[in-house]
Specification:
The protein has about 625 residues and is mainly α. The protein has 26 helices and 6 strands. A hairpin with a 2-residue loop joins strand 1 and strand 2. A two-stranded antiparallel sheet has the order 1-2. A two-stranded parallel sheet has the order 3-6.
Length: about 625
C-alpha cells in the first residue's frame, strides 16, 4: 500500500502545479503576484512523471484484477474495489491536470496529443464539485446491480439474464419470445432511468472541466481527429456497407415471414426485434437454422466434430492458436504464459469465465483467462484472444505506458477477429484437421458466407447506433422525456427493427443493454468489424492469395507476419491512420474490404430478394 499511496500522492501533487494559459499578471498594490505560469518544459516533465505513475498503478491493478477474476469471493472483491478506487483517483487527477496543461502556450503537437490521450482515457468523468464523484459511483453501482439481478419470464416462470440470452437463441415460440423480450426490458431498463439521467448530468459536468462540451464529445475526442470528424467518418463507412445490410435484412425478413406468418412478421417493413435470436437483435446467428438455404446451408464439415475426432483438448487448442502466430514469424509465448494462464474452469472455486487476454507487467507477463471447451466457437476464441497477447507484446517496446495500447480502441478487437476469419478450410487442411478430399466446394460458399454475415454484417448498425443515441443524450438533443422514443426511432432508422409490443415514455430500453448500464463506449466494436476485413484483405494480398477472399489463409506467411508486426509495434505512438497505412497501404477506414469479402453473398441475396420491397 505504501507504494500505491506514493503514486497517488504524486498525481495529487501535480494538481498543485500551475497551468495557466497566459503569463502571470503584473503585481499590483491591491493583489500579490500570481504564481509563475507553467512552461512547455514543465508540461513535458509532468507527462514523464504521470506516465511512470500510471505504469506502476496498472501493474498493481493487473495483479489484483487477476486474483479477483480467478478467485471470486468476498475478500478478493473487497481488494479489487480498493484497487479500482485508487486507479480511478489517479486517472481523474491526471485527466484534470492534463486539461489544465493543455492551455499552456507553445506546446508541441506531440505533447498536445499526449495530453488529449490522458484526458480522454477516462470515460465517465466526475466534476470537482464535492460529493459528485461519490454520487456518480453510487449511482453506477446501483444501476449495474439492477442489470446484474435483472430477470425475465418465460411461460410465467422467472429466469435469469444468462438463461434468457440462451433461450432467445433456441426458442421458436413467438409468444414466449415476446414475453421474454418485454419482461427483460421492463425488469432491467425502466428502474434505472432516473439514475441514468442524473449520471449523464454529472458526467457532462466532468467532461466540461476537461475541456469538452459534453461526454459524447470527450468519447469522440480520442481518435486523432475532431469529434465531428470522427462522427462523420463512421457515418460515411456505414453508408458504404448499408446496402449489404439492407439485402440481408430483406432476406431474413422473408424467411421469418415464411416461418411465423403475417400475423407475427409482415412481409414488408421492419423486423420484430425478438425474432432474431438475440435479446438486442445485434447478431442473428442464433436463427441460422431458419434462414439457411437448402443445399448450401450445410458447409460440408463440422469443426467441433473434427477437433474431437483428432483428440484435441483445451491446451492443444491454445497451442494450435499459438502456432498460427509463430508460423507468421512471431516469437513463441513465454513459459510463464503456460504456467499462469487459466485455460479451463476450475472445479474448486468461482471464476470469471468471460474470455480475456492479459498483459500484467506491460512487458512479457502475458496470460489468457478462459473456460475452454472443445468446440468450434472456443477454437475461434483462442485465435482471437491470442491476437490481443501478441499485440500487447509487440507494443511493449514503446518507451511510454501511454503508447502501450492499440492504435485506436477498435484495433485490438480487429486483430483477433482477423485471425478468427482465417480459420478457413485451407487452414484446417494444413492443420491436418480436414481431409483435403472433403474440402467443401464452391456450392457451399453461400452457406459459409451467410452464416458469417448473420453475425458480422447484422451487427453493424447496432454497433453504430448505441453511441449515436448516447451522443444525443449527452449533448441534450435527446432528453429524459424522449429517451425511449429516440431509442426506438434510431433502431428503426439504423437496424430496421421494432419492439414486439408498445413501449411507453416511462420505459428505458437502452438500459437493458449492459454497455449502456455500465457506461462503456460502444463504437469501438463497429470499428473492429470494419477494420478486421481491411486487415484480412491486406494480409491475403501480401500472401499472394488468388482464390475467393473468404477462403483465404495466410497461415505460414512470414511476409504478412513482418508487415503485421510493424503495425503492432507502433501501439498508440502515432495517430491510428498512420498505423493503418503501415499494414494496409491506406490511411482511410473503408468498408470496401467487407463488401468484397461478401460479394458472392451480396449477389445471391439480390437474386433471392428480386421483386421484394427491401426498405422499411
Amino acid at each position: 500500500m505504501k507504494s500505491l499511496v506514493s503514486g497517488l500522492a504524486l498525481a495529487v501533487s501535480m494538481l498543485a502545479m500551475p497551468a495557466l494559459a497566459a503569463p502571470a499578471a503584473a503585481a499590483t498594490p491591491e493583489a500579490p503576484a500570481a504564481a509563475p505560469a507553467a512552461t512547455p518544459a514543465d508540461v513535458d516533465a509532468w507527462l514523464a512523471s504521470a506516465d511512470k505513475a500510471m505504469a506502476e498503478q496498472t501493474v498493481k491493478s493487473g495483479h489484483v484484477q487477476w486474483v479477483y477474476q480467478t478467485y471470486v469471493n468476498d475478500d478478493t472483491a473487497g481488494i479489487v474495489a480498493d484497487s479500482d478506487a485508487a486507479g480511478t483517483l489517479l486517472q481523474v487527477a491526471q485527466a484534470k491536470q492534463a486539461a489544465a496543461f493543455a492551455k499552456v502556450p507553445g506546446l508541441s503537437p506531440e505533447t498536445l496529443r499526449r495530453l488529449t490521450m490522458i484526458r480522454t482515457g477516462i470515460t465517465t468523468p466526475a466534476p470537482s464539485t464535492p460529493g459528485a464523484a461519490e454520487e456518480f459511483s453510487s449511482l453506477q453501482a446501483h444501476i449495474q446491480g439492477i442489470y446484474a439481478t435483472g430477470h425475465a419470464t418465460r411461460g410465467g416462470v422467472s429466469i435469469s439474464g444468462h438463461e434468457v440470452e440462451n433461450a432467445m437463441i433456441t426458442d421458436r415460440n413467438p409468444d414466449e419470445l415476446k414475453e421474454m423480450w418485454l419482461s427483460w426490458h421492463d425488469s432491467v431498463g425502466a428502474p434505472m432511468k432516473a439514475d441514468y439521467a442524473r449520471m449523464v448530468a454529472i458526467s457532462n459536468a466532468g467532461a466540461r472541466e476537461l475541456g469538452y462540451s459534453d461526454t459524447g464529445a470527450l468519447w469522440r475526442g480520442n481518435y486523432d481527429m475532431t469529434p465531428d470528424e470522427f462522427a462523420a467518418m463512421t457515418e460515411k463507412v456505414w453508408g458504404q456497407v448499408r446496402p449489404l445490410y439492407q439485402q440481408l435484412h430483406c432476406y431474413v425478413r422473408g424467411k421469418l415471414n415464411a416461418k411465423y406468418g403475417d400475423a407475427v412478421q409482415a412481409k414488408t417493413g421492419p423486423i420484430r426485434a425478438d425474432l432474431l435470436g438475440n435479446m438486442w437483435a445485434q447478431e442473428w446467428g442464433g436463427i441460422y437454422d431458419i434462414v439457411a438455404p437448402k443445399g448450401a446451408g450445410d458447409i460440408g464439415y463440422d469443426l467441433t466434430d473434427l477437433l474431437k475426432a483428432k483428440g484435441y483438448d483445451p491446451i492443444r487448442m491454445v497451442k494450435t492458436g499459438e502456432q498460427f502466430y509463430t508460423s507468421l514469424g512471431f516469437a513463441p509465448l513465454p513459459k510463464t504464459f503456460w504456467e499462469r494462464s487459466q485455460f479451463t474452469k476450475p472445479r474448486d472455486r468461482e471464476v470469471v469465465c468471460h474470455a480475456s487476454a492479459w498483459d500484467i507487467d506491460n512487458k512479457d507477463d502475458l496470460r489468457v483467462k478462459m473456460c475452454l471447451e472443445v468446440n468450434a466457437t472456443d477454437f475461434s476464441t483462442v485465435h482471437h484472444e491470442l491476437g490481443h497477447n501478441f499485440y500487447q507484446r509487440a507494443y511493449s517496446i514503446q518507451p511510454l505506458r501511454l503508447y502501450e495500447e492499440s492504435a485506436n480502441d477498435g484495433f485490438h478487437e480487429a486483430i483477433g477477429d482477423t485471425m478468427a476469419l482465417s480459420i478457413t478450410p485451407d487452414y484446417l487442411v494444413k492443420l491436418n484437421l480436414l481431409d483435403p478430399a472433403k474440402v467443401p466446394g464452391p456450392d457451399k460458399d453461400i452457406g459459409l458466407l451467410l452464416r458469417q454475415a448473420m453475425d458480422k454484417v447484422a451487427f453493424l448498425p447496432f454497433g453504430l447506433m448505441i453511441d449515436r443515441w448516447r451522443w444525443g443524450v449527452f449533448d441534450g438533443s435527446i432528453t429524459p422525456a424522449t429517451y425511449e422514443k429516440a431509442w426506438n426511432d434510431m433502431r428503426l432508422r439504423y437496424q430496421g427493427i421494432v419492439p414486439p409490443g408498445p413501449r411507453g415514455a416511462d420505459a428505458f430500453d437502452p438500459g437493458a443493454k449492459y454497455h449502456v448500464a455500465a457506461s462503456v463506449p460502444y463504437t469501438r466494436y463497429f470499428l473492429a468489424r470494419i477494420l478486421q476485413f481491411q486487415f484480412y484483405e491486406a494480409a491475403c494480398k501480401q500472401a499472394g492469395w488468388k482464390g475467393p477472399l473468404h477462403r483465404c489463409s495466410f497461415y505460414g506467411n512470414r511476409k504478412v507476419g513482418a508487415n503485421l508486426d510493424a503495425m503492432l509495434k507502433m501501439g498508440a505512438s502515432r495517430p491510428w491512420p498512420e498505423a493503418l497505412k503501415v499494414f494496409t497501404g491506406t490511411r482511410e477506414m473503408d468498408g470496401g474490404a467487407m463488401l468484397r469479402y461478401f460479394a458472392p453473398l451480396s449477389a445471391w441475396l439480390k437474386k433471392q430478394n428480386e421483386g421484394q420491397d427491401c426498405g422499411w
